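Quarterly update from the structural biology core.
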Amino acid sequence: MTYQTEIDTTSALIQRHNGTWDGISPEAVARMKLQNRFNTGLDIAKYTAKIMRADMAAYDADPANYTQSLGCWHGFIGQQKLISIKKHFGTTKGKYLYLSGWMVAALRSEFGPLPDQSMHEKTSVPALIEELYTFLKQADARELGMIFRDLDKAREAGDTARERFLTNEIDTYQTHVVPIIADIDAGFGNAEATYLLARKMIEAGACALQIENQVSDEKQCGHQDGKVTVPHEDFLAKVRACRYAFLELGVDDGIIVTRTDSLGAGLTKQIAVSNEPGDIGDQYNSFLDCEEIDPATARNGDVILNRDGKLMRPKRLPSNLFQFRAGTGADRCVLDCITSLQHGADLLWIETEKPHIEQIASMVDRIREVIPNAKLVYNNSPSFNWTLNFRQQVYDAWAEAGKDVSDYERAALMSVIYDTTELAKEADEKIRTFQKDAAKRAGIFHHLITLPTYHTAALSTDNLAKEYFGEAGMLGYVAGVQRKEIREGIACVRHQNMSGSDIGDDHKEAFAGEAALKAGGVHNTMNQFA
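Predicted structure, tokenized:
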């Protein structure tokens, strides 16, 4: 519906009330409706699911159409990210939000900072989704409000060309609301608990849920040791629970991202149920580290498997966990991924220990032999030392090609002394093109960084504290922050405007007319930044 159509529709409605609504401005109503086009989180989930499905189809046609996101731990951070994207690139196409369970645990729990072990309140996850979208909708309201004000000025000046331009800007306005991929960890309990949380997350606006195959009560960060996986049937019950939640709420094209931690997980809490040789339970159990035993040597309490007519005793740790054979991680990842896609998953996530395109591709190639359009969400993790990893990759490639590497010490390649070398330059170029190259070679549809804004907040605060509390004093803030905000066009330099002060003034004027007491007058210090 166009701006003028919205005004005309509201005007007709007001006229039907026989003068009792004459104090209502049709144009003010139209503006409020356009500034808040999403009434519920479900409206957002349905809208963004369609965007993400279209992006997935575009990627299938051409892997150059990969998508990206940054993890955001607060609504304001997500808002500023999208404002920045629109400012620099003119569109939000292909740019999402990521909600990291790690950052929820570390920054949003009432218990205080926690490790990524699903100990935080599960309700904090949908609460953050709702908060993120509240801030993104406010970004819409703010930006549209500024266009409306410019439209009023054009009318006052009699500039019809400008008026037509601004009206078209309103009619073609692109919202800051984008898809969010939300981390549901390992489901926070059994399948029913997963379903209940998934429903809350979808109602808050999530169109894509990411769930991992770890044990809920033993869940670990994907880049820490001690990870314990569950048999496929247990995991698939939770995948189905997420799908039921989407379907119940009418988000028929909701996206499920299934994450496998099997590459770095050497343990399982359960032996899978197997009804016949070769079934999925039998395949899971085939990776267990077992020893063949004579029945006469069986010990009290032993768990024993019958495999191909032989009695096998899985190695059980004092923790009562069972151990997988070393070197089976990649094979288990491939099986996990194929099984998930065959049972309702839409996208895959393979958690790796380093950013190595050929390692990822070696697994994706095998998955695509069975499911040709398999594609990944990939964690461009801050847990990787990107500089050292890629310098070592270049070092190894040079050494294999017979190139002289005697000037370099492989284990010390992180050192600043190598920063200007040809090796470092080549490594940096590989980092720069990693997303494009991995999208083409390794089937990665979506690249994300899980917790970048955790690090940027710490880094920027450190820089400010060092200067402000040091010799620079107030110049530490002015030169290091405010002057840069002004010159780089950072919207929140006018922080009153960013927090909604002008939106409130517009509403006050609509509600009270000339009697409105507005904050944005001539004495507002924000006018120094106009």
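Residues 124-157 form the longest helix (34 residues).
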